[in-house]
Amino acid sequence: MSERCSNPNCYVNAGEGCYLGEMDHRRCVSWSASTPETEPEAPSLSATSVRVPWSGSALGLTDMANLSPRGRTILISVLGAHDAGKTTLLTGNYLQLLLGQSLANARFAGSRTLGAWESLAAWTRFDDPARSPTFPPHTPRGTSRVPGLLHLALRNAKGDFRDVLLTDAPGEWFTRWAIKEDAPESEGARWMVRSADAFLVFADCNRLASSNPQRGTARNELRQLLERLSNHVGDRPTALVWAKNDIEPNSEILSSIQQTLKKQVPHAIEVNTSTSQPDSLTKALEAVLFPAWSPQQASRIVEPILHHQPFSAFRGVHAHA
Amino acid sequence: MHTPEIVLLGGPDSGKTHFAGQLYGRLKRNPSLLELRDTPADLSALEEVLLCLENGHAAGHTSAGTWTDVLLPLKDNRGNELDLRWPDYGGEQLRTIFTERQVTETWRSELRQADGWLLLIRLNKEITYPDALTELAKRPSASNGAAARAGEWDGNARWVELLQILLHVAGVNTVSHGEQPRLAVLLSCYDELTTDGLLPSQVLAEHLPLVSAFIDSIWKPSAVSIWGLSALGCLLEQNSDNENFINQGPEYQGWVVSPDGQQDSDLSRPLAWLLGAE
């Protein structure tokens, strides 16, 4: 099993199922056209068993192609500086679903990334007295240009099915992107901003608090991020998340950020989250999930009136003034 | 003649063998909705469990490599005849599907052909962490350890992933409620649980909320039913000798709780529902 399928979307060599659904991948046309790969593969896989096309880990770009035919996907970009609480929000929402809570009036209908969710949730569980439960630590800045995408399928009471993809990206990407838009290391941030259906922007109340000497830097980073985002956001749903809200941010800093938000992203809404109130984490995600649930309706095509005489009103393909 | 196929899905220690043994006793000696027309030609798969139950003790563990079935020639109360192949296997096979993320060809063809899936979940054996969030809320600023944690998966996530794999392999469309196998969830060893008069579906939602939500989202309501099952009615050990089993016979022990909360001694009712005979 040292070969790689010629189909770039196929990971049959990594233990997943054939991309084209062949039982025996050796019968697949893409496989027979493949070239041997140098990297050796360890798992022993018998040819007579069937595998599934997902691994349970966070999804990459090619995995999205597997999901998109199922229906509307909602990609939510989670933006914010390092340690602002982005992963905490994701974990909190997964834990709420585990308790049977609904999200945006819809119920859990599966996930392709349960392995990734569980590894995040494992941090919060008390299984070893020597290690107390905490929220997951820092998301490492990888070389990958696409953040790990966490997936949730939801179905609401009307039967609408949605694949929700949440980005779990390192904070450094955005700090860099806010300064220099086309910096090579912010490729991931650019992809997220280009492809997203909705945005969650994180403000870290802990860093903005009066007691924190770094509050100026934090405000600067956040304002730069908002100003950068305003170039790209269009009318996509956006929420500013005041994370770690149990700590009061400095009131002047707070109002200056609110001013920036009002000017740069006027349609954005503000939500407060705190880990001491698990509901607030769900509410923050719902704040953008609700407006993004249905695609925005296309606006009516209105033909401009160029002449007021009926004779001139006809404008064929070749008609020029 | 219609020969329906069902698959029985239950992990190790979920009570598959006891259910099979008790079901056979019911069908043959104390029938109600479903009844055996003839004595099956080959009973070797049930030999051990039947003997153990007659003597009032629990049967041993089915070994992991086992894959046998018993052909049950059944008749429902309207006189329809059907042949049912009742599978028996070591529950580790189901665990292997989850850990290795692959399904053998035997399993796949069973899953694809099946008219109904019978899912046995023993709630008391599931590991869940229902209070993780409240615990965290109490100590929000705990320091981060750097070592990665490899805890066991939550029982919710494990069942959902297993069902997703099985659904995918069986080629069931999970997005629209198209053609899908009927699903009967049996909460086995129901006598172990304190249910406070809740319906079996509410008990499932309380113990495994994510699984309950997943099943509700994927299966249309008419294609799923959730039952409580106590195949033996009480706890039997391998060295016990329960007088009721020895004197009255095992076919008078055990009960199910129907989806509407009624306790019933007819163990074949979930099966009858699955086969559309009820």
Keyphrases for this structure?
heterodimer; A: 321 residues; alpha/beta; seven-stranded mixed sheet; 11 helices; 32% helix; B: 278 residues; six-stranded mixed sheet; three-stranded antiparallel sheet; 10 helices
Overview of the structural elements:
- The complex is a heterodimer of chains A (321) and B (278).
- By secondary structure, chain A is α/β, with parallel strands linked by helices.
- Helix content of chain A is 32%, strand content 15%.
- In chain B, helix 6 packs parallel to helix 8.
- At the A-B interface, strand 1, helix 3, helix 4 and strand 4 of A face strand 5, helix 5, helix 6 and helix 8 of B.
Form type of chain A: globular
The average pLDDT score of chain A comes to 81
Using a beta-carbon cutoff below 8 angstroms, give the protein chain pair with the largest interface and the number of residues from each chain.
Answer: A-B, 59 and 51 residues
What is the C-alpha radius of gyration of chain B, as a whole number of Å? 20 Å
Oligomer: heterodimer
What is the element string of chain B, with H for helices and E for strands? EHEHEEHEHEHHEHHEHEEH
The first-to-last residue Cα distance of chain B is: 18 Å
Please report the total strand number of chain B as a whole number: 10
Main sheet specs of chain A: 7 strands, mixed
